[in-house]
């Protein structure tokens, strides 16, 4: 077939002679070749545009990341400056502090000064990166803050060198406030620069994405037109084919009439019970040998029975008065039948209306599903029992959390508030040091606020809803690390948080919280590793420690491990616990995300809570 014939077949124009006289057509390109060349050029142009867009977006994304980090660092530096200046000012009037209070204030100042220095160095690196990318102005603003930074940082270091409360040299508040005001103004300016560049970068990325989408739409429209055009020509051919098919159907009907004898043999030899009954009287007309063997009645006994005789009284009303019109056509349903020995069985009936010797009849096939029904009932019972276990475990956890909250409020918050009350009462006595009692009361009230915040975060972690699972785990690890005594390492590999249901993310966080609590209580470990790895539809969670370990066969499963098991079961997770005395412990949970996405999120999220 030539290229012109191919073009005609797909509906692109009328036949063109292979040779056309005249000099004007000697160098003319064939239509199909022109079409193929244009299509190739269009696809190549779209591909080239997409590649260029990819590299542009990639470069802008790097720049956007730098500006976002710079904006956050500039904001953090402003907070650090305020904290450092506040602490230096407080320490300048340290005469009412005890030695322990003064030491605590110095420790807080040391932490703030360290963060202040690190943030300043990070800003140096970020502004240098932007300068390398051709973005001017950031390094100049940063350089203008260097003198103020050095003065504020040196003032903090002077105070940090103190070893006792009584000091002979005090910082100059005026110079310190002037330096902090200059530094804050420049940091605000630098933060605004970062923010403006971030907005411009995101806008450019948006324009590029819109261009890519438009190119895809144009390409798809072109390809759609290319495909749809031949359909109209093909419709005429399909009509002729349909006419020939109808003729073949009429011939097939004649052949079916001659093949009915073959189906008689299939009816008799079917491995499933089959019968034919009258659609009006419901009397058995034919039964196969399998029905005779399965139900215990002989063929002659079936001939004197109706289909009501093999059904209990409770189901006879469904067929009372004959077979409904729709059942005479086709019915599939579950019924209860009675064998000759009185045994009740569950069967699945498939039927079809037929013509039997000129009378309306029904051909039925019965499949014994008694065993399946029994297994389903047993499985349902197990599921109900399992749900009850989960409910009991959830109630136990709630009671445990309530007891812990009550104990925390009584032991910490209540004691602190009692002390505050005593100091407030002392303030009203003659000769009392009012300012001293007032300062102590304010510090205690701040401690109460922090304690209540800690209890609130332990109940409902805000980072899981507002930030995400990964920051929540990182906050948990950082909180344990700050306590000292144990180092928590967090490893992430191929993890896509956006594809996970909210209930599964909460389950993963709760399992990590429960296991790290167990490690802190019992393991005496110095290092704990948390690993999250996603490979396709498989999600892996591992929590290991280098503690004293234990023998899983000898240690009773406590409430903590029971809660972990129940939470994993909600999302069909496979839990493995590996532990040996002296060799630490490894907790592994495997989730199949395909199965997780099939679950009802309303049920699983309620159970995960």
From TrEMBL:
EC number: 2.7.13.3
Keyword check for ATP-binding: yes
Residue ranges occupied by any PAS domain in the UniProt entry: 259-308
Reactions it catalyzes: ATP + protein L-histidine = ADP + protein N-phospho-L-histidine
UniProt KW keywords: ATP-binding, Kinase, Membrane, Nucleotide-binding, Phosphoprotein, Transferase, Transmembrane, Transmembrane helix, Two-component regulatory system
Record bears the keyword Nucleotide-binding: yes
Coiled-coil boundaries: none
NCBIfam families associated with the record: sensory_box
Protein known as: histidine kinase
């Amino acid at each position: 077939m030539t290229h012109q014939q191919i073009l005609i077949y797909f509906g692109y124009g009328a036949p063109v002679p292979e040779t056309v006289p005249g000099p004007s057509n000697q160098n003319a390109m064939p239509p199909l070749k022109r079409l193929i060349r244009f299509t190739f050029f269009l696809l190549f142009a779209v591909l080239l545009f997409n590649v260029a867009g990819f590299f542009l977006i990639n470069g802008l994304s790097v720049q956007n990341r730098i500006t976002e980090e710079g904006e956050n660092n500039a904001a953090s530096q402003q907070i650090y400056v305020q904290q450092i200046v506040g602490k230096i000012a407080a320490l300048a009037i340290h005469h009412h502090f005890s030695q322990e209070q003064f030491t605590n204030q110095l420790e807080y100042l040391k932490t703030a000064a360290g963060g202040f220095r690190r943030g300043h160095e990070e800003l140096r690196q970020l502004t240098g990166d932007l300068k390398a990318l051709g973005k001017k102005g950031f390094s100049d603003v940063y350089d203008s803050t260097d003198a103020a930074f050095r003065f504020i940082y040196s003032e903090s270091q002077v105070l940090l060198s103190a070893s006792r409360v009584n000091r002979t040299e005090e910082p100059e508040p005026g110079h310190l406030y002037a330096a902090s005001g200059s530094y804050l103004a420049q940091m605000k300016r630098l933060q605004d620069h970062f923010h403006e560049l971030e907005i411009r970068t995101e806008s450019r990325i948006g324009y590029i994405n819109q261009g890519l989408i438009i190119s895809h739409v144009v390409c798809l429209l072109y390809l759609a037109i290319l495909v749809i055009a031949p359909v109209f020509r093909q419709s005429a051919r399909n009509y002729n084919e349909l006419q020939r098919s109808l003729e073949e159907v009429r011939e097939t009907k004649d052949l079916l009439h001659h093949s009915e004898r073959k189906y008689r043999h299939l009816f008799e030899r079917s491995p499933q019970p089959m019968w034919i009954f009258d659609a009006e009287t419901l009397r058995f007309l034919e039964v196969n040998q399998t029905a005779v063997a399965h139900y215990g009645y002989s063929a002659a006994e079936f001939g004197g029975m109706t289909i009501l005789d093999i059904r209990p009284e409770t189901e006879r009303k469904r067929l009372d008065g004959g077979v409904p019109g729709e059942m005479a056509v086709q019915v599939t349903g579950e019924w209860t039948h009675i064998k000759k020995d009185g045994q009740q069985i569950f069967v699945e009936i498939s039927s079809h209306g037929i013509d039997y010797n000129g009378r309306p009849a029904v051909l039925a096939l019965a499949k014994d599903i008694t065993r399946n029904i029994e297994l389903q009932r047993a499985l349902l019972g197990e599921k109900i029992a399992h749900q009850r276990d989960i409910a009991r475990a959830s109630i136990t956890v709630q009671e445990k959390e309530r007891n812990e909250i009550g104990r925390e409020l009584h032991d910490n918050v209540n004691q602190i508030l009692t002390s505050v009350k005593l100091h407030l009462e002392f303030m009203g006595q003659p000769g009392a040091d009012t300012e001293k009692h007032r300062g102590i009361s304010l510090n205690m009230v701040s401690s109460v606020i922090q304690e209540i915040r800690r209890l609130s975060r332990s109940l409902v972690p805000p980072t899981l809803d507002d930030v995400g699972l990964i920051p929540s785990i990182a906050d948990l690890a950082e909180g344990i690390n700050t306590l000292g005594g144990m180092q928590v390492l967090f490893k992430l590999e191929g993890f896509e948080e956006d594809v996970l249901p909210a209930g599964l993310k909460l389950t993963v966080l709760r399992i990590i919280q429960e296991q790290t609590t167990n490690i802190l209580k019992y393991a005496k470990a110095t290092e704990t590793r948390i690993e999250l790895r996603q490979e396709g539809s498989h999600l892996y969670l591992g929590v290991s420690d280098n503690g004293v370990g234990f023998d899983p066969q000898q240690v009773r499963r406590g409430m903590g491990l029971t809660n972990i098991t129940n939470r994993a079961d909600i999302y069909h997770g496979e839990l493995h616990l590996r532990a040996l005395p002296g060799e630490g412990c490894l907790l592994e949970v495997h989730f199949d995300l395909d199965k997780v996405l099939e679950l009802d999120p309303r049920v699983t999220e309620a159970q995960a809570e």
